[in-house]
Fold this sequence. Notes:
The structure holds two protein chains of two kinds. By secondary structure, chain A is an all-beta fold.
Amino acid sequence: AQSVTQPDIHITVSEGASLELRCNYSYGATPYLFWYVQSPGQGLQLLLKYFSGDTLVQGIKGFEAEFKRSQSSFNLRKPSVHWSDAAEYFCAVLFSGGYNKLIFGAGTRLAVHP
Amino acid sequence: DAGVTQSPTHLIKTRGQHVTLRCSPISGHKSVSWYQQVLGQGPQFIFQYYEKEERGRGNFPDRFSARQFPNYSSELNVNALLLGDSALYLCASSLEGLARYEQYFGPGTRLTVT
């Protein structure tokens, strides 16, 4: 069955430090992968996506992610975190078989210290 | 352009009651999906509608139903509410072709069942 695991429930970093959020997926075919961000009380905003091609993808707000098929991972990175990046981050894989549904991980809550 | 809109923003219902949530997709988007996000978890897929037809359904009881109108807006209905139905209900819309894999989310409706 398809699934997404985000091993870190909470992460705290200092402003200006680098960030890596982990995501592992289980999917039989070539995965379509996404990272979304959710600020408190808000909906989900798409940060970036991977469909095929270059395994390093760039997104909005200075985020990037690297697809590693051998490790079934799609980790999100940012070289220098800003206080406004504090939010919850969700990794998702798309199931596409007659219809499309996103399968989400449980999320990683990011706190940023000044 | 306006994003996905949802109404109402918040609502409080009593166990056993019925609720209707509404969603308007981004202009030009013909597909609407509904997700339930329980506090502390990632969103769970409920339905996908495309061109007014149900394309897919998640693992939710028959108390949950939806429909899509000719203008592509959608309603999610939940009957006989249970305390466990308390959640943020998210609507997402998408285009056709390869872009159908990108889902854009609204701000959600926060439902509290007492």
